[in-house]
Design brief:
152 residues; alpha+beta; 45% strand; 4 helices; Alpha-D-Glucose-1,6-Bisphosphate, Chain A, domain 4
């Protein structure tokens, strides 16, 4: 019975590492403006979008279905351009005991850039599927944000 899991994907981006990291570190409240699968983001608790004590409420679409969850910033690593978010409540809480979304923006040696998404999760029982739909979701999210940042 395997309840713990980890999914990971790395996607190339055209925008600079700094622009991409800055978007997630300081402009997360604009996500719904630039990403078609994000329907709504709002502060649930706190008054600073990027503080570790703040909780946000998300409404988004995965696999054609509307989902909701809460999110809080768990870790910010500016030096390595890495952010970690804890997702809970809503649809996440119905299926997973723990759900962590980790974003790492990577400056490649060949002057290109990539974003690495990692999802670490613990299912509530073995009948729950791995969150594979999230890989498509973060890929589309990456393309939407990258297109916006390239134009900006």
């Amino acid at each position: 019975m395997v309840l713990n899991g980890k999914l990971s994907t790395e996607l190339g981006i055209k925008a600079s590492v700094d622009k991409f990291y800055n978007f997630f570190a300081t402009q997360l409240h604009e996500m719904q403006i630039h990403c078609e699968r994000v329907h709504e983001t709002k502060l649930h608790q706190g008054d600073d979008w990027h503080h570790t004590d703040t909780v946000k409420h998300w409404t988004y679409v995965i696999d054609g279905k509307v989902h909701t969850c809460h999110e809080s910033v768990e870790e910010v690593d500016e030096k390595n351009k890495k952010l970690s978010y804890k997702l809970f409540g809503g649809d996440i809480g119905e299926n997973y005991k723990d759900f962590k979304l980790i974003i790492e923006i990577i400056d490649k040696s060949d002057s290109s850039a990539a974003i690495k998404w990692t999802i670490e999760y613990v299912k509530i029982n073995e009948d729950i599927d791995a969150p594979n739909g999230w890989m498509d979701y973060v890929a589309k999210l990456t393309r939407d944000i990258d297109a916006h940042l390239v134009k900006a």
